[in-house]
Write a structure and sequence with these properties.
Structural class of chain A: alpha/beta
Strand content of chain A: 15-25%
Radius of gyration of chain A: 19 Å
Oligomer: homodimer
Distance between the termini of chain A: 28 Å
Largest interface: A-B, 49 and 49 residues
Largest sheet of chain A: 5 strands, mixed
Helix content of chain A: 25-40%
Order of helices and strands of chain A: EEEHEEEHEHEEEHHHEHHHEH
Strand order of the largest sheet of chain A: 3-2-1-4-7
């Protein structure tokens, strides 16, 4: 039974822009409000409050949100609402983000890591079922992954799953700001290539390696690629396919693993993070979302 | 309620030796029978049948096994009992191993991949609970991992999860029989170092990299190390700790990820594979085992 009066709000706190999206119960967007992201936990919470209020005026004036779900970078403890290591947002040490948001919003807000939320949003948009598994590789300023295993987000023991950008992929690679050498993120992230499209080959090489890593480690049904550096879409996918074909051409083992057939682009023009944040919050939607275990 | 008359039999079909172990319901070993592994699906099944029969005579003469569970290398489809890619056992194309075993044994046998079984056996022996997660890295002729996530074995979409030995860890590494260059398995497996203890540094380097891979990708609570090349025990763990400390010393990021504190040796002197195979079969033991999803 769908209640047409019910609205769910998902907010994606990005490095530069914060976007709040109102959804109906079928996860169809009803409206969107956005503004530059402010830095520091208090200002982030205030900005979220402003955007949710603006959505209330523009879209859902007669409907109080049944869900308010927020996703943001960093190590998010979903159970406690604590966020740490979101350095680009001016958050280093753990902050009680959930409590701050609840205070501003006057209602509890569910928190989720942004890449995990995008993974869950992509899983939903690709129409995958609860027996399916997906790795979502986000290629933006950094490289990180979110995993949906058997229909559920896998967050890890400390909320730190998916830090694949800091696994060394070549010993002779460039230095990474993290202190290591040859990390995938030091080779093929936006930070590494200066967001220069001429250097896309490095991005494609790094992403091909992460596809192989996700497919061989977790044997997921699909690996979806998203994030700012992949927004060109099909040309990126084509270049990635050439790389994966090269890898498969020298290795019957990789060929039998079927890397190429598992790759998808994350859907474009869809607020994946906001949608995924709502899905994560709505743990009652059978099997698709998961609360912290 | 423990029924003292109930016996569970786990059989570990290894590359050189096949071991059958009878357990009571608390997973305490009651007896063991072993013999050289025969090659080819039919002979493997016959050998399993002989050993289970021998156990029946030596240990469990008055008790018919409540469970017969078999683990072996290769791509095991737990739901159908099909096994493929167990090249060292003379099995390449998929064979109906479950049906062969049932025919020989006169009873159904649960099949599991050997590394997944050892992961589940280790998870049990380390006393981990259903909220915990473990990566078990097996370092023998090859390198592969098994994952227990939230108390359940994660087998992947095609039963192929854990093939971390064939992710390249350095572009300038040696050629791997799989066709790639610089795979972890080409650097630090038993096949790579010729089981030569003088070359243990290569093994330790490769295992340190797999520990980092498992910790950053899945954020598991613990990474357990097992397999023939780690049987020396504490000295191996000490050498691994030095490697991980070196990695952490250059990277605050890695230090905060706490690689060193997550590492354990898989328990020695315990039939981990046979025990894990029984655990996998006994899906009714709350949350510890998982049927194919």
């Amino acid at each position: 039974m769908i209640d047409d009066d019910v609205v769910h709000v998902g907010v994606d706190v990005g490095g530069t822009t914060t976007r709040a999206v109102a959804f109906d119960t079928a996860l169809v967007p009803l409206g969107i409000e956005s503004a530059p992201t402010l830095h520091g936990a208090d200002l982030i919470a205030e900005r979220v409050g402003e955007l949710v209020a603006a959505l209330g005026r523009s879209v859902a004036s007669s409907r109080h949100p049944a869900t308010i779900a927020v996703c943001m970078p960093g190590r998010v403890d979903v159970a406690t609402g604590t966020v740490a290591d979101a350095v680009n947002l001016g958050i280093d040490a753990p902050v009680e983000m959930g409590a701050l948001l609840a205070s501003v919003l006057g209602a509890p807000a569910h928190l989720e890591n942004d890449v995990n939320a995008a993974a869950l949003g992509t899983f939903h948009e690709l129409g995958l079922g609860v027996r399916s598994s997906l790795a979502y590789v986000n290629v933006g300023t950094g490289i990180a992954a979110g995993f949906v295993l058997g229909g559920r987000v896998w967050r890890g023991a400390t909320g730190g799953a998916g830090e694949i950008g800091h696994i060394p992929m070549r010993a002779d690679g460039p230095s990474c700001p993290c202190g290591q050498v040859g990390c995938a993120e030091a080779i093929g992230s936006g930070r590494a290539v200066g967001h220069d499209p001429q250097r896309r080959e490095h991005v494609v090489a790094a992403v091909a390696w992460t596809v192989q890593l996700c497919a061989l480690t977790l044997d997921v049904d699909l690996v979806a690629i998203g994030g700012g550096l992949t927004e060109v879409g099909q040309p990126f996918l084509d270049a990635l396919d050439v790389q994966l074909a090269d890898r498969e051409s020298v290795s019957p083992f990789l060929r039998s693993a079927g890397l190429r057939s598992r790759v998808r682009l994350a859907p474009a023009g869809v607020p994946l993070g906001a949608a995924g944040a709502v899905l994560a919050a709505r743990a009652d939607i059978a099997g698709v979302a998961q609360r912290a275990r």
